[in-house]
């Protein structure tokens, strides 16, 4: 039997037509004969402006018998300043909205407009000037002086930039960068306010109000060596040392050449840890900065921030001229030092001012550095090596690399650097997303290692006081392996910290049921749970003493007596190891105190009443 194949034509659903813009809707309402154009002087070239372009033009409006109604030209009573609009952004009458995009540069044209095409348009977005004959047919004489693709810096078009020459790179200055630029300024009608600085460019600190606000906003969009004109209206002409007197000036045009800027970074956002680049390196920021776990090579000079700027260490002098080598993310240098180096590019030199708590107050202090002193480091990043790429490694090599990183995490955990330790475990877990074991034996090793890493992360969360996250991580392990006693122990400790005592006891009892060898640890944990319950009951009884003995109207006085608050532990002060060590597959920790939460977190109504010996009470 012959089978006839029928080709079914697949017709794509019609695409929804793009909703026309408000300007397009306005243009479509122009009736035939409502807008007429006559070219009085041809322009040059063949390009015309479009949306996104700034148009600069003079306008003179006349009645049909030649009486001037309004003009931007000084000879007709105007201010002499050309009008500026950004097509697609500025609010203008619909006749100009339709007519300006038809003009060439230098062209002079006469537009004859009926009232509905200028200020008598329904819902016209701009108001007619006082005394303007908006109900009359009028002639608009327009001279197109210039147009160009504009960078709109402020939404209200108070700051607009015209790029003359593009710059280098992509980085732009921002607070608190140090900036050098050649700048000149003139009013909209051409009066010179500031001539281009001679010799050295003008220097200012970004964000310190040392130049007008609008000028600074425009410079903040420029790159090195870029040349631009920045148009700034009066509301952005704030007084400054650069241009102190600007009263009565409606608009200033700043011609700017951005000579150089120095990257200054407020690392903490509070002005205490400042990194200042004093010599540019090679590469682009931040693409060519050291990644986490990179091997870095630096020369540095450490100074005390005293009057003498006492040098306490210099690798070129005190280290036989050899640079310091260290791996980032391992807590091997002070935190402020590493934070700054990781934002440097090779061969960059930076001056870092650091407060004590990010210098040596939490790090082994050199003998000649007093306690609580501010530090300044001059750091040169010689280079760095990227983290080892696991692509192409066999399974055993991957597991060896994973074990090295996990051991580093364990060391950091023992040192109380829980966030750094967690970052190490997380790194391996991310890499494991791309590992595919090839047989059952590899799969078993891989699963066990991944479970250990998850439990290491859970231990970090527990020490950091994020118990709910610790429980979520343990649940991942238990979903895959419900009998994992270490996951039960870790989760039980997290439940106990939260005051979920029944859940904690359930996990510890399950440990004993699954593995008798865990009974000592589980029993110790259960004893700790019992102690916690007693502590909570004691606090509750003291806080709510007499609650049910009061007469009506006296209830408001309950709970006003002082209660001793438990001191909240700082997890980082606990020196006991709680992360899985090198041979931790079958080991379990003793039930040492995890970080405490406020005792108020235990006061769920059900537990409160039970603690008071009144489980059957009803609160009305």
UniProtKB/TrEMBL annotation:
Where are TPR repeat segments found?
A: 485-518
A single Gene Ontology MF term assigned here is:
peptidyl-prolyl cis-trans isomerase activity
EC number, UniProt record: 5.2.1.8
Where on the tree of life does the source sit, at the highest rank?
Eukaryota
Bias (Basic and acidic residues) ranges:
16-25, 585-595
This protein's species is: Pyrus ussuriensis x Pyrus communis
Catalyses which reaction?
A: [protein]-peptidylproline (omega=180) = [protein]-peptidylproline (omega=0)
Q: What is this protein called?
A: peptidylprolyl isomerase
